[in-house]
Amino acid sequence: MHYSPSSTFSTSDVVGFEALMRWEHPIQGWVPPDVFIPLAEQSDLILLLGAFAIHESVTAAAAWEATGWSIRAAVRSRLISQRTSSTTATSYP
Q1: pLDDT for 5-53, tens place per residue?
Q2: Rounded to 10 degrees, what is the CA torsion of 54, 57, 58, 59?
């Protein structure tokens, strides 16, 4: 996960972070989301990626709050598919 800061327009104060899914392939280097997300959408792997993103974002936000930052974290998602899966990805790990 990578985190992009969000700031207020009037003061430029950082008020939160947007969580961004990134993948570093050991040989090919950084693979853009527009390449690996469609591949993950073809299987239930997208459910695990979504659960991972939420888990990591909440964990990071809790760690930042423990240091005194009162901020928000956002995980952008989109409707991926309308399917029922026999694999439940409601928790990570």
Answers
A1: 888 888 888 888 888 888 999 999 999 889 988 888 888 888 888 888 8
A2: 120
The CA distance from 50 to 48, in Å, is 5
Tokens, residue 16: 């939160």
Backbone phi, psi, residue 86, to 5° = -80, -15
Amino acid identity for residue 26 in this structure: P
Annotated domain spans of the chain? 2-75
Q: Which residues pair with 19 in a beta bridge?
A: 3, 75
Distant-in-sequence, close-in-space partners of 76: CB < 8 Å, separation ≥ 6: 18, 19, 20
Q: Is the dihedral of CA 72, 21, 57, 77 positive or negative?
A: positive
